[in-house]
């Protein structure tokens, strides 16, 4: 290590030469931890650097999301995505903070990033976990679970400006989802939410039926007391 622990801790607490992020939503250690702009954990994963960044991510998301939505169901898939967005961003911040601490380099605190790529790598981990068939990449048959690591390396080589730690954070979250109680927690939340929605629907249906019955009874009472109005209220259950 290039310096002692005391100097590293001082460096992390008081980063020098801070650079401002290019957008109001970009994720960085400085903005999230030091300036407490926690909204970046959500919006940073939704913003993209340019149109091509967005197009590539959405194409990749479509291929993985369509498969996972079939397995999970729409509601659980939606809950999983909403959970992954802030979770991946938080892991990215943690990775850059640890890197700055280990390397004694405050520049890692100022690195800013945006995009949905980390979440897509999380979905890639889930896809390869549930897809048991071998993958074919460049004509070579591979074990499905190894493709996410190959893709991580290839993207870093092809596009050096991409965030290796950001993609690795996505893989970490995906593995954590599979091999921890997190998936069971999501299933429990979905079950509770589904039961609540079902009860709410039943109550609304009962209220509508009660309202309809009351309206029918009132109409019949009017017809009995005022036969002349029956022709006007014939459509409201009047014989």
UniProtKB/TrEMBL annotation:
Residue ranges of every copy of the Peptidase S54 rhomboid domain listed in the record: 36-179
Domain of life (superkingdom): Eukaryota
Ribosomal protein among keywords: no
Localisation per UniProt entry: Membrane
Transmembrane segments: 77-102, 108-126, 164-182
Membrane-protein topology: Multi-pass membrane protein
Assigned keywords, A-Z: Hydrolase, Membrane, Protease, Transmembrane, Transmembrane helix
GO MF annotation list: serine-type endopeptidase activity
Biological process, per Gene Ontology: proteolysis
GO cellular component: membrane
InterPro entries to which the protein is assigned, alphabetical: Peptidase_S54_rhomboid_dom (IPR022764), Rhomboid-like_sf (IPR035952)
KW Transmembrane helix (keyword) present: yes
Family statement: Belongs to the peptidase S54 family.
Protein name: Peptidase S54 rhomboid domain-containing protein
